[in-house]
Design goal:
With about 130 residues, the chain is mainly alpha-helical. It has five helices and no strands. The mean pLDDT is about 90.
Length: about 130
């Protein structure tokens, strides 16, 4: 696989999803766009689910297109990068009218990213033949 193919296959989905998160965070009243069945769900759960997908996408990219030491520690990198993006998203929301920044949202983002990345790493990533 060429580096260009790796970019489109592994990094472009992260970029697209990060842009979607940024767009949703830019909405002054995002709850107005939620389907009715999700309005009863805690926003912390929604944050965790949202960032679990980001964690999965990041593990996938770091594992297959990160190379070397990054690929060996793809789950940790995915959690760290997703958590940092969650913090930056909360800072961004502090500047959006009718929105606020909440440290507990960032915590929910990090927990969701960890669950998604760890689950993907545990279930999907191939085990090495030496048992580690």
């Amino acid at each position: 696989m060429t580096p260009f193919e790796g970019w489109w296959r592994y990094w472009m989905p992260i970029l697209a999803y990060a842009c979607l998160i940024f767009y949703l965070s830019s909405l002054p009243h995002p709850e107005a766009y939620l389907p009715s069945f999700l309005k009863a769900v805690s926003d912390k759960i929604l944050h965790a689910v949202e960032y679990s997908l980001l964690g999965i996408l990041c593990v996938r990219a770091f594992r297959h297109a990160g190379g070397g030491m990054i690929a060996d520690h793809a789950v940790l990198w995915a959690i760290a990068i997703s958590a940092l993006y969650g913090v930056s998203d909360e800072i961004h929301q502090a500047f959006v009218p009718f929105r606020n920044s909440d440290v507990w949202d960032a915590v929910a983002d990090t927990i969701g990213a960890a669950i998604g990345a760890w689950s993907w790493g545990l279930v999907i990533l191939p085990r090495r033949s030496d048992g580690s």
